[in-house]
Specification:
Largest sheet: 7 strands, mixed
Strand order of the largest sheet: 3-2-1-4-5-10-11
Bound molecules: 6-O-phosphono-beta-D-fructofuranose
Helix content: 40-55%
Shape: elongated
Radius of gyration: 22 Å
Structural class: alpha/beta
Number of strands: 11
């Protein structure tokens, strides 16, 4: 089917999984591009859940006005258990067919694309994915929508924590999101000048961490910020702080978990821009007859990446960034 030109007339767009700042900008781009090409566009509310329940409404160009700057997703989102079942997917297909919808734009992460791929294989519904997740963990794209905003939010939080950490000579463990990956932590850590960055991709034990911090203490720096990815294998921020306090009581340790603060807020310029580019490209790809592909940005060009690669191939952590983090924190 890939590359065949079945004429697409009515498409639906939805967001699914964790929300990410910039999703609204992507929805806007899909609706405006599709309208430009004379397609009818529908919005599915609450992701696959809304698709199953038939919560689908026609969207006109004006319906997506005044949303480019807003965080969250006005179509709302959900993590759907029912869509994991064949029965749920059949109900979703019936809802779409009742409106003669013949193409989908799915905005989300790997769970969203896994569902979309299965849906295409079972029902032949063409689908293009737009990567929307703060985690930036999808193979085939340099950026996912929401990542830049999440990193900026985390850096702003770290800047504030730095003031109080320095005043009290405290060792702060600041936990950021990223599920089982460390992209948010690595970028946040470098951008905030952290003393150490702990991510799932690189195993660092507590003894090594203390040695590293003590090297920088030699230059009279008594406080430290340690950025910890939530999925860090040797412990989350709270566990590490407790272990250090037990083994090295001289350290005055504190813990901050940034949590869902990273998921909200107005998208940055970069997120608005990539969301607009990706939403546009998704509609062009559907019209051109592509399916089962994710839009990506590689070296500042939009590309199409097979779902299989985006979902299953491992996005390697940038080794140069790791080295930069190490050298600049000493
Ligand atoms: O995938 C985005 C993300 O924010 C992860 O970084 C985090 O692990 C997860 O979602 C949290 O999910 P929820 O909002 O459902 O608790």
């Amino acid at each position: 089917m890939e590359g065949m030109k079945n004429e697409i007339r009515r498409i639906a767009v939805f967001s699914s999984g964790g929300d990410a700042p910039g999703m609204n900008a992507a929805i806007r781009a899909v609706v405006r591009t599709a309208s430009y090409y004379g397609l009818h566009v529908y919005g599915v509310y609450r992701g696959y859940e809304g698709m199953i329940e038939g919560h689908i409404e026609r969207l006109e160009k004006g319906d997506v006005g005044n949303i480019i700057h807003r965080g969250g997703t006005f179509l709302k989102t959900a993590r759907s258990e029912r869509f994991r079942t064949r029965e749920g997917r059949q109900m979703a297909y019936d809802s779409l067919k009742a409106l003669d919808i013949d193409g989908l734009v799915a905005i989300g992460g790997d769970g969203t694309f896994t569902g979309a791929k299965l849906f295409y294989e079972e029902f032949g519904m063409p689908v293009i994915g737009v990567p929307g997740t703060i985690d930036n963990d999808l193979y085939g794209t340099d950026y996912t929508i929401g990542f830049d905003t999440a990193v900026n939010t985390a850096i702003e939080a770290l800047d504030r924590i730095r003031d109080t950490a320095e005043s009290h000579n405290r060792l702060f463990f600041v936990e950021v999101m990223g599920r089982d990956t460390g992209y948010i932590a690595l970028n946040t850590g470098i951008g905030s000048g952290a003393g150490a960055i702990l991510i799932p991709e690189v195993s660092v034990d507590v003894t090594t961490l203390i040695h590293h911090l003590e090297k920088s203490a030699k230059r009279q720096k008594l406080f430290s910020l340690v950025v910890v990815a939530e999925g860090n294998e040797n412990g989350n921020a709270q566990q590490l702080a407790t272990e250090i306090k037990n083994r090295y009581p001289e350290y005055d340790t504190k813990v901050t978990i940034i949590g869902h603060l990273q998921r909200g807020g107005a998208p940055t310029a970069l997120d608005r821009l990539i969301a607009s580019r990706m939403g546009y490209k998704a509609v062009e790809a559907l019209i051109a007859g592509h399916t089962n592909m994710m839009v990506g940005i590689q070296n500042n060009h939009t590309v199409l990446v097979p779902f299989d690669d985006a979902i299953h191939r491992n996005k390697e952590i940038d080794k140069e960034l790791l080295r930069i983090a190490e050298i600049l924190s000493l």
